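hey
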């Protein structure tokens, strides 16, 4: 199966660009902080899925209108 960036390089570039926006960057820092806390725990059930999903939701919200403009 092909790598995602080879399938749609425009989307990958937009995700990188949008991931650097202040709101998304802040959410990524929250995810990294959570990951660091979880790494110190011995709890197999703890995870940072909510922070990860918040980050990708913000990135997708930024990418979608730009991507569809390029595809039309």
């Amino acid at each position: 199966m092909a790598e995602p960036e080879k399938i749609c390089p425009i989307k990958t570039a937009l995700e990188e660009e949008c991931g650097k926006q202040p709101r998304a960057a802040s959410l990524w820092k929250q995810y990294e902080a959570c990951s660091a806390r979880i790494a110190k725990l011995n709890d197999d059930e703890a995870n940072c899925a909510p922070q990860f999903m918040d980050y990708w939701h913000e990135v997708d919200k930024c990418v979608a209108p730009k991507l569809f403009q390029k595809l039309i």
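The mean pLDDT is 89. The CA atoms of residues 24 and 55 lie 6 Å apart.
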